[in-house]
Amino acid sequence: MAVAANFAGAVEAIGAEFTKETGHKLQITTGSTGKLYAQIGEAAPFTILLSADAKTPAKLEQEGKAVAGTQFTYAVGKLSLWSADAQRIGPDPKAALSAPSTLHVAIANPDLAPYGVAAREALTAMGLWETIQPKIVMGQNIGQAFSLVDTGAAEMGFVATSALDIPGSKPKGSRYDVPQEMFKPIKQDAILLKAGEGNEAAKAFLEYLKGERARAIAQSFGYGTE
Q: How far, in Å, CA of 11 to CA of 4, rounded?
């Protein structure tokens, strides 16, 4: 199963419950949606794609690489500006981003990752996309963008809210949860790939992902659901 990097923690928790209930075990590969799409195009034997967008599953269906009629939204992603420094981000994100002491701002690569597109849209909405360009450092996926901030390589960055809202842990640092009106909704869609067409475990997991237990776990990790 190919899973967008932002959903890695949630899918592990959901998968553990799924295995308890069904006995089926999951093999999970995570990465940016763009990279996973490329691997599927090169005939990687994934049975399911949990994408970070709706566009990629639809494209795979059009290309005959996914099973028609199996696409659905399993989570709606949220975006946060985060710093490991508890004092760095106050109520005004523009001031924090523009501060002379902010030398690097991490985002996921917009060419590969939907969360990168959302970060670019948020910065554009703030009127900062052009001026922040010299400070931007990019990860291939949203997980790498988080790591750039977590390790101190960037003073702050746009990360998946789910990376901060981990059940049972207290988030460190400071954050600004980006209002939905600043970026297009990140509808994250799942689809059954052609390699999984005859795989009963894959079909069972997709059904489980639609259920109340899986959705409750996704919400506990900071996702919205439809």
A: 10
